[in-house]
Amino acid sequence: MNTKNTCRLLLIVSLVLTMVACGHKDILPDPIGEPVPYTPDGARSWRTIMDEPKYSFFKAAWNRSPIETRIKNSNSAYQTLFIPTNDAFTAAGWTMEKINASSEAVLDSLLAFYVVPGLYKPVTLSTPTHRSIPLNTVLRRTTVPGYSTSQPYIYKLYIGVWKDSMMVNGVPNSKWEENEPAVDGHVYALSRMVTKPTQLMIEYIRSQPRFSMLAMAIDSGNARYTGIYNSNSSNYINFLTGGSVIQRGKATLFLPTNQAFSNSGYNTKDDISARIRQSWPIAYNYNEPGTNFYKRPRVGMDSVLMPHGFALSRNTSENILFGKDLLQYPETFSGFMTKIGQSGYEEHFILETSFANQNGMLMVRDWRSPAGDWQPIVESDIECLNGVIHVVDGWLMRK
């Protein structure tokens, strides 16, 4: 059979098969059973849930505030609310009289901190991630350094797990079962109110007499980065103030008190200056052999601050680690890499701190000096606008 006849035969077969296929309209099998109707997780809206008696303080404040404008501007079909109960309001010093006497602006700021655009179910928020999950609230602020009207500072709620409780901004709060799905979101009952951060890290440090030596060390070190050494600067002031767009990250610091300085032989500004002079002049920048990472030598006092969390001063990521996170997963966060370095550029960003859970107490030491002494955290979870502070009375000095 020649090629032309073969082509004709294939065309005829194709047409026949097409006609047969078009003539069998009932070729699919009949469906089995009844179709399952879609049912949302909740039976009520979050506004209806808010009408419950245990939320009457929150609802009264809601009715007197312009919060609905924020809800509308969020452009979200779903809202997740973390609503403090009446008992939580009372414990925080709120009464119905105080609510009725408060201005709309005060109530708006109060409520907006508990409203998160989007749908966040317990199965998502309770999935182990080793650290608390940040959720953007509808509360904004334009006066934080590094932020503006077009790019405002966003207040966050950090949700984590602590045994059978939900952890909110580092503090165990209500039980996980105290929540209700809504047709248009989700509602979590809070047994205690959450305190908003009000200060920058540098403001908190300078306001605390117990950190006067630390403030002196930071200022003395920064003053040395001038002229040809300026590119080496740790930029601690920018880091602690969020003073520029590139410093919008958040960090976790383990701040040494004056007692920690004194225990290590630093009691005056001259003692700090003597430590700095040991490493003066600052060496030039160089590429580390073997890795080719870009290294910036530091003055001696800055170097010893590295395990206190200051190693992340050039990292703009959000690295919030609450005490309960560290207590549950100490090995995970010891020497935790927050950003991978790139050959020819900055080295890895590493939290140069090791952690241990010793009988329920959070202990810390220098990650690069595993033979060093463990120091207890004496105060945890001081939340600032640009990070979280933990306090140590011991010194994590690198040997």
From TrEMBL:
**One cellular component (GO) term of this entry:** extracellular space
Keywords tagged on the record: Signal
Where does the FAS1 domain lie? Answer: 198-396
One of the entry's Gene Ontology molecular-function terms is: cell adhesion molecule binding
**Where would one find the signal peptide in this protein?**
1-25
Report if keyword Membrane is assigned: no
Identify the InterPro entries for this entry.
Answer: Adhesion/Biosynth-related, FAS1_dom_sf, FAS1_domain
**GO terms, biological process:** cell adhesion; extracellular matrix organization
Q: What is this protein called?
A: Fasciclin domain-containing protein
- In its UniProt entry, the species of origin is given as Candidatus Pseudobacter hemicellulosilyticus
